[in-house]
Amino acid sequence: MSIAGDFDKVYTIVSVFLAEDSNTHRHVTEFMGLDLEMAFKFHYHEVMKTIGEVLIGIFKGLQAEYAHEIAAVGSQYPAEPFKFAEPALILKHSEAIDLRADGVEIGDEEDMSTPFEKQLGRLVKAKYDADFTSSTQFPLAVRPFYTIPARTTIDTRTATTCS
């Protein structure tokens, strides 16, 4: 409603409670959610760029404000420092699939399985030295309800870092 009321960007950070049977380590029924609604002028890449900027701002804020707490957790649970590219790393689905290696099988038009996503994280870290990435241009055949066909031409007035 706020977007229709001529606000360009609206967000909320709220507690989310899902009434779902989620007996996996990848799904939670209670969490803090960040919901961003945004009007864009030319292409959804404007939204991808904004989301990347917001998350990088959060990452930087956490690293600056909570360095002591991060170090305390790290002393008990050693891990490499969290790294991210600036601007945010955005890979086309085809680029992510092209990184496949080490026996994780996935076809060009397949959905990403949990083993592939884990391997992709390792491959992105090795190639780009980043722990955070987004994916775009997901195949229509995999998720037709959530995916809009990619346009063959992009308005040149959209000067973003992703294509």
UniProtKB/TrEMBL annotation:
Q: Give the matching InterPro entries.
A: Aa-tRNA-synt_II (IPR004364), aa-tRNA-synth_II/BPL/LPL (IPR045864), Asp-tRNA_synthase_2 (IPR004523)
Q: Supply one GO molecular-function term.
A: RNA binding
Superkingdom of this entry's organism? Answer: Eukaryota
- Every Aminoacyl-tRNA synthetase class II (D/K/N) domain range: 3-151
An annotated GO BP: aspartyl-tRNA aminoacylation
Q: By its UniProt entry, which Pfam families does this protein fall under? A: tRNA-synt_2 (PF00152)
List cellular component terms (GO).
Answer: aminoacyl-tRNA synthetase multienzyme complex; cytosol
What SUPFAM superfamilies does the database record attribute to this sequence?
A: Class II aaRS and biotin synthetases
Protein's name according to its UniProt entry: Aminoacyl-tRNA synthetase class II (D/K/N) domain-containing protein
Protein species of origin: Pristionchus mayeri
